[in-house]
Design brief:
This protein is of the alpha/beta class. The protein has eleven helices and eight strands. Helix 2 runs parallel beside helix 3 and helix 10 packs across helix 11.
Length: 243
């Protein structure tokens, strides 16, 4: 069964527009946990535009009381990011090749070009007890290389699929993701996915065999404006659990 990790960045982004502490990231985490989410994802950026280091540490404390749930910290492994991960030792660390000025992640790793940087970082993360996932385009050759640098999983960057689906062309793009997921599994890698997945395009996407986890934030928080946060989580879980 594909697991759901809820990304709380958008909750923090809204909170940070005012200095009154609402919405409360910790309260949001408690709600999604109570609603049945399988884990929490955060992406602390250098400019702290949304999730801040203090949020990461507080969430780590909360999740320590829920050993059945996973904490996934994602980001570009700059020194400050690595310092956070060393302190928290999350279950999973997803490395993303985004630059500090990017509004959001928009491409996967070029593993061939970045192998010398990635290998020692992945080795250190694994020594800390973290599962390591690399954010990847659905490029079969690059995904095969992810295994060579020591990654445990890949997270397929799904914005191209989401955009095609919205244009009525999802079936044209989806085979790329089938091939990418198969290549990952054949290389001994687990398969995660995320970016712009929503209630409309997720059912078709999870027809791909062997997707271990989806990380969803922006769309789920948007749906929560209509459904409420707990019901939004349950709506995504209903898709993933086939009911």
């Amino acid at each position: 069964m594909t697991k759901l990790s809820v990304n709380l960045n958008r909750v923090a982004l809204l909170r940070n527009t005012r200095n009154i502490g609402i919405p409360d990231v910790m309260r949001a985490a408690e709600i999604v946990i109570s609603a049945g989410a399988d884990g929490i994802t955060v992406h602390p950026r250098p400019d702290q535009r949304h999730i801040r280091p203090s949020d990461v540490y507080a969430l780590a404390g909360l999740l320590s009381k829920h050993p059945e749930l996973e904490f996934n910290i994602e980001g570009n492994p700059f020194p400050d990011f690595m310092d956070i991960v060393r302190k928290v030792r999350p279950h999973q660390c997803t490395l993303v090749p985004d630059s500090p000025e990017q509004a959001t992640s928009d491409h996967g790793w070029n593993v061939q070009a970045d192998a010398n940087r990635l290998k020692p970082l992945i080795a250190e993360l694994k020594s800390l007890g973290c599962r390591v996932s690399l954010f990847m385009d659905p490029d079969v050759d690059q995904i095969r290389r992810a295994a060579d640098v020591g990654a445990d999983r890949v997270e397929l960057y799904t914005e191209p699929y989401a955009a095609a689906f919205a244009a009525g062309e999802g079936d044209r793009v989806l085979p790329e993701y089938f091939r990418a997921a198969a290549a990952a599994r054949n290389a001994g890698l687990g398969v995660n996915a995320g970016h712009d997945l929503n209630l409309h395009n997720l059912p078709k996407f999870v027809e791909i065999p062997g997707v271990d986890e989806v990380s969803i934030g922006h769309a789920l928080i948007a749906d929560a404006l209509e459904l409420g946060l707990a019901e939004a989580v349950r709506a995504y879980l209903a898709i993933l659990r086939g009911r």
